[in-house]
Amino acid sequence: MGLLALQFVWTRDSEEALTNCMYDKKIMQATNQQFLDILNMLISQMSRDLTKIDTVRFETLITIHVHQRDIFDDLVSRFRRLLMSYDSNLAVVDMHSSPQLGVISFKFRRYH
After folding, report:
1. Which of 11, 19, 31, 87 is least enclosed, having the fewest CB within 10 Å?
2. What is the pTM of this model?
């Protein structure tokens, strides 16, 4: 159940950040910090006296979340490169993201 919740939170927050990053310059940093806070909370649980099965559960959550953060970092990097590669007379008019698949699609149009 915890893994499913972690996946839902990551997907929701990633999509929200990618959708709103054109309007909120700091949302990507804030979202990345949220993901780091979640990771640190999961890591801090490992210092508790856990059963073997709980230890395996938290190790799994930590591993999955580290990969999620790597994917998010890659999405941020790709998005920045994409924006920098286009002329300033292009505007992003629509962006659909699918962070769980690592896919971002954009529709561009020229200013008139």
Report:
1. 87
2. 0.69
Q: What is the CA radius of gyration of the chain?
A: 17
Q: Write the Ramachandran bin of 94: left for phi over 0, alpha for psi from -120 to 50, otherwise beta.
A: beta
pLDDT tens by residue, the chain, 112 residues: 788 999 999 999 999 998 888 788 788 889 999 999 999 999 999 999 999 999 999 999 999 999 999 999 888 887 777 766 654 445 544 445 555 555 555 554 544 4
- CB-CB contact of 10 with 99 (8 Å): yes
